[in-house]
Amino acid sequence: MPAHKDTFGTPRSLLILGGTSEIALATARRLVARGARTVWLAGRPSPSLESAAAHLRRLGADTRTVAFDALDPVAHEGALGEVFAEGAVDLVLLAFGVLGEQATDERDPVAAARVAQTNYTGAVSAGLVCAGALQTQGHGSLVVLSSAAGERARRSDFIYGSSKAGLDVFAQGLGDALHGTGVHVMVVRPGFVRTRGTSGREEGPLPTTPEEVATAIELGLRRRSEVVWVPGALRLVMAALRHLPRQVFRRLAV
C-alpha cells in the first residue's frame, strides 16, 4: 500500500517498535487523528498488543501487528522487512525499553545485562534495519525514544541510564550518517513519564505524561527537529546537572 505525506508532513503510515508502549500509543492516537491511516504495532505477541491494535482500529486506522522481540536481533531483518515489503513507511517510532530494578539488578549481572541488551543492543539492531529500509525507499523519519536519564549516570538508575546513554549516542550518529538521504532521525529525551511502568517509583524533576510526550513528538516532526526534550525546560535542568562537580552530584537525591 503506498504511503505519502500531507503538506504539513503528517505521516500516513507508522511502524511502532514496542507496540504496547503508552508513549507510542499516545503518539499513534495523535497522528491517526491528523490523518495517519496505516499503523504497524511490533512487539511480542500478547493480549495487550492485540488490545492496542483493536483500540487504534476503532479510531479508524488500518492496524496490524508483527511479532518482534528486541532480544532476538537475528530475527529483526526478517520481521521488519515484511512490514516494509507491504509498502513505504513514513514514520518508525522506536519505543521499546525496560526500566529494570536497579537495587536488585546490581546484584544480578544477568538481569542487568538484559536491560542493556533490550535498551541498547536490540535498539541498535532494529534501528539499523529500519534506517536501511527508510533509506532504500528514500524518505521517512525514525524517532528514537531516549531518556534524560542518559545525560548523566545517577546512583539510583545508572544501569538503565547507561543503556539510554548508549542509545542516544547511537541515534545521534545514525542521524549524521543519514543526513542528506531523505531520512530524518529525531532523538526524544523525556524526563520522568507517569505510566503504568513507573507507578510507585520516585518522580524526577519536571514529570510529564505520555500525552505530553506525544505532543512534543508531533511538534518535533513538523519542525524536523533532531533532539526534543520533554518538557522543554528539562534541557536546562539537565545541562546544570551535567556540569555539577561529581562530589556535589553524588550528594544530591537524584
UniProtKB/TrEMBL annotation:
Superkingdom of source: Bacteria
Keywords from the named record: Oxidoreductase
InterPro entries: NAD(P)-bd_dom_sf, Sc_DH/Rdtase_CS, SDR_fam
GO MF entry, a single one: oxidoreductase activity
PROSITE patterns given in the database record: ADH_SHORT
Stated family: Belongs to the short-chain dehydrogenases/reductases (SDR) family.
Cross-referenced NCBIfam families: PRK07904.1 (NF005912)
Protein name stated in the entry: Decaprenylphospho-beta-D-erythro-pentofuranosid-2-ulose 2-reductase
